[in-house]
Amino acid sequence: MAPVGEKKGILERLSGGEVVIGDGGFVFALEKRGYVKAGPWTPEAAAEHPEAVRQLHREFLRAGSNVMQTFTFYASDDKLENRGNKLSFTGQQINEAACDLAREVANEGDALVAGGVSQTPSYLSCKSEDEVKAIFKKQLEVFVKKDVDFLIAEYFEHVEEAVWAVQVLKATGKPVAANLCIGPKGDMHGVSPAECAVQLVRAGADIIGINCHFDPMTCVKTVEMMKEGIEKAGLTSHYMVQPLAYHTPDCNCQGFIDLPEFPFALEPRILTRWDMQQYARVAYKAGIRYIGGCCGFEPYHIRALAEELAPERGVLPAASEKHGMWASGLEMHTKPWVRARARRDYWENLKPASGRPKCPSLSTPDSWGVTQGHTDLIQQREATTQDQLRPLFDKAKH
């Protein structure tokens, strides 16, 4: 047991049967708020606009999150160098600022700090195992210095690179979670979720699961496949899931990145808070005890997870003070037909409209061949647009 006044660690919580609620999607949320640039998706906002990152952490904590994950997605030096313009901050400065912000807010509640690493351009450029591991080790130095509570290797499309990351992270002696951004078809080399799971656990991961690229139900299904692989191999593990907040029934192996709407027109696909409650229940029944979100997840989505699992957790989040279970707050609405919606069965059975006339029920995802075939047109359009906008950007800087 943890000493009085000391927070229980992630493995102690999970081994004790607790439900751990993760946080949501910082990259997409901060892009919408004007602090992250789509494309590079790098997290310099942690050092550049710490107040924005701090506030988002705080909102997730208030919504019920038990983990403050450092905003260090794509914060490896090789990724930062690919931004195309010089940053005012080094990778070390960004990672240190992210750790400090996460710890500051975690200390405001019963939350843990998780330091996160993700896939690297070095791996995708076919660099050697030693070179890729060196990237992880450099980022890891900050997490060790700042003494994060545990480590997460997330957003890996190839299990081989994820295994390398786990091996590096495991050397610290801290608990390690490993998440792949794959669906039921497996990683980008066709390695099945079951085999991926076995490789991750044998590499030393304490917690395994899925994050990003697909909707909640697809991600839960994939974790179930991982769980079956672990049990068949006679191994044990804890499980986690942090999916998109978007419906993705028409996605292929690459996930939502191949959708025509990615990344600026995904809002019609957003899950409602009631969808999130269903997701939380399904994940719990599947034996997953670390349940959170990734891109598209806002604090109200996390609040929905925490409210659905309040009976199991024995507590409601602070943000529920301004909500009311299953729309009970609508009982005070001035319109009688809205007051009549203050009941669970109404929202559980609702089929939300898109609000868009002639909106297709599903879209046709782009294929890589189509995307490559439009390269010249895209480059021409980008050049024209940048020429038109450059005077405005220059004016804004001054």
Structure description:
The protein has 18 helices and eight strands. It is an alpha/beta fold. The chain folds into two domains: 315 residues, TIM Barrel (Alpha-Beta Barrel), CATH 3.20.20; 32 residues. The longest helix has 23 residues. The termini are far apart.
What is the strand and helix layout of this fold?
Elements: H1 10-15, E1 20-21, H2 26-32, H3 45-48, H4 50-63, E2 67-69, H5 77-80, H6 91-106, E3 112-118, H7 121-124, H8 129-145, E4 150-156, H9 159-170, E5 176-180, H10 193-203, E6 207-211, H11 216-232, E7 238-242, H12 273-285, E8 290-291, H13 299-308, H14 310-313, H15 336-339, H16 344-349, H17 368-373, H18 375-397
Parallel strand pairs: 1-8, 2-3, 3-4, 4-5, 5-6, 6-7, 7-8
Helix pairs in contact: 4-6, 4-13, 6-8, 8-9, 9-10, 10-11, 12-13
Comma- or semicolon-separated keywords:
398 residues, alpha/beta, TIM Barrel, 2 domains, 8-stranded parallel beta sheet, 18 helices, 8 strands, globular
Coarse shape = globular
Annotated CATH homologous superfamily of the largest domain: Homocysteine-binding-like domain
- The order of strands across the largest sheet is 1-8-7-6-5-4-3-2
Give the SSE order as H and E letters.
HEHHHEHHEHHEHEHEHEHEHHHHHH
- As for the CATH topology of the largest domain, it is TIM Barrel
Amino- and carboxy-terminal Cα gap: 56 Å
**Number of separate structural domains:** 2
C-alpha Rg (nearest Å): 21 Å
**Secondary structure category:** alpha/beta
Strand content: 5-15%
Return the CATH class of the largest domain.
Alpha Beta
The second-level CATH architecture of the largest domain is Alpha-Beta Barrel
- Summarize the main sheet: 8 strands, parallel
